Structure formats: C-alpha cells, structure tokens
Amino acid sequence: SQQGEEDPQALSIQEGENATMNCSYKTSINNLQWYRQNSGRGLVHLILIRSNEREKHSGRLRVTLDTSKKSSSLLITASRAADTASYFCATDENMYSGGGADGLTFGKGTHLIIQP
Amino acid sequence: DGGITQSPKYLFRKEGQNVTLSCEQNLNHDAMYWYRQDPGQGLRLIYYSQIVNDFQKGDIAEGYSVSREKKESFPLTVTSAQKNPTAFYLCASSLKDGNTEAFFGQGTRLTVV
To answer: What does each of the 113 residues of chain B score in pLDDT, given as a tens digit?
Structure first.
C-alpha cells in the first residue's frame, strides 16, 4: 500500500530559488526518509528523520516532520540545474506495525525541474 | 567498491516467457527488497527478505517469484503469470533493523515484446 503522498506532483523553478516539497502519510511511523531519483536510475538516499525529531539539515537540504499532522517537507535551498530529479518520501509504516524490515512505503514523488 | 548491482540494465521478454533479474550486494546487509516502478508512479513492494532462505510477499507479489540462497543475492523471476510485466524494477538492501537508509541498484527496465 502506498502511504506517502508528495505534493506538488511537479515543480519548475529558476536556478537559485528554493524548492519545497511536501509529503503526507496516514499511520504512525518510526522514521521518514527522502530519496532522489534521476531519470532512469536507482534511488539515492538523501536524509532520514526520526519520529522524535522535528527538523534536520544536511547541506542545502532541510527536512521537517510534524507527526501530529502526519506530514513532512523537504526544502532545497539555492537550487542548481543538477537538482533536477524526482524526489520521493518513504515511511516505515509496515515496520512500525509489525517490527522488522518489511520494506519502505513510497509515495508517487515530486518531479523537480530547475530552469538554468 | 561496496554497493548493489542489478543486471541486466535492459531486458526484453516475449509473452509467455519467464525471465530472471539479478541483484547482488556486497554491503553485508541482511535485508533485501524488490520494487516495481511504473511511469510517473512511486515504488511498489514485490518481495522482501530479511534472512537467507526466507522471504515474504509484498503488496504486488502475484506473477513473481524470488529466492534467497545466499546473503549477497536476491534474484527475481518474472513469470508468464504476470499480466503486465513491462516496468522498471529496482532492488534494494538495508540493515535488518529497518531504521536506516536503503541502498538501491540502478534498476532493470523490462519490456515485453
């Protein structure tokens, strides 16, 4: 079952601007992760935020988590053309409920285009 | 280099044929996963394995089979029973505790001709 739902589905901005993507989920989680996928390639892990954390930074990335609203946001600051990709959030819904490595549940992603 | 390798990158299958997609990792991860991705969609879990000689069905296991005879290897067979097999297939691995990142291969694009 797909739990994470990203918003917007597509986003086009100018290079240098900030890009914000949102993710909502339905049930309780232990952690939420963000991944990036370049066209036709595998996914690359960006950042993991645990349920007891509210904000996390990694370079130009800033992730927030609001467990009361079951939502997360990914902010990419000072965007570059190379940031053009699809971005997915993933939760451990199955692991939270059953324990163990039951696989991540992914949303449909936000396709980000950075115009040079 | 440590990582996860999928092969082949592109695969063409005639209707009615079974095909096997390879996935190998040298990260010493216990858990391995297979996902399917359709155009413009997210990833859907096909099968996963937490330990050698054991695996579990994911959300869309019908028409697929797997084996886990070695820790490093988790091949996926797309059988003729899979009605719509054309898709992008991604293999991933992670530590068993599930509270860490997953590492993905570069994917196999399967096309039925």
So the answer is: 569 999 999 999 998 899 999 999 999 999 999 999 998 788 999 999 999 999 999 989 999 999 999 999 999 999 999 989 999 999 999 987 667 899 999 999 999 98
Cα-to-chain-centroid distance, residue B52: 15
Q: What is the pLDDT of residue B2?
A: 66
A50 CB neighbours in chain B (<8 A) are 99
- Which positions in chain B touch A61 (Cβ < 8 Å)? none
Q: CB distance B94–A101 less than 8 Å? A: yes
Structure confidence at residue A27 (pLDDT): 86
Torsions phi, psi for A10 (to 5 deg) = -145, 145
Contact at CB, A43 and B92, closer than 8 angstroms:
yes
Can you spell out the DSSP letters for A82-116? Answer: GG-EEEEEEE-HHHHHH-S----EE---EEEEEE-
Question: Which tokens hold the place of A1?
Answer: 């079952």
Strand pairing class (A110-115; A10-14): parallel
Query: At a CB cut-off of 8 Å and minimum separation 6, what does A52 contact?
Result: none
What tokens appear for A65 in the block? 């988590």
Q: Stretch A28-33: mean pLDDT, rounded? A: 90
What average pLDDT does the structure give for chain A?
89
User: Is there a contact between A43 and B41 if contact means CB atoms under 8 Å apart?
Assistant: no
> Do A30 and B92 make contact, defined as CB atoms within 8 angstroms?
no
- Cα B31 from Cα B51, distance rounded (Å): 6
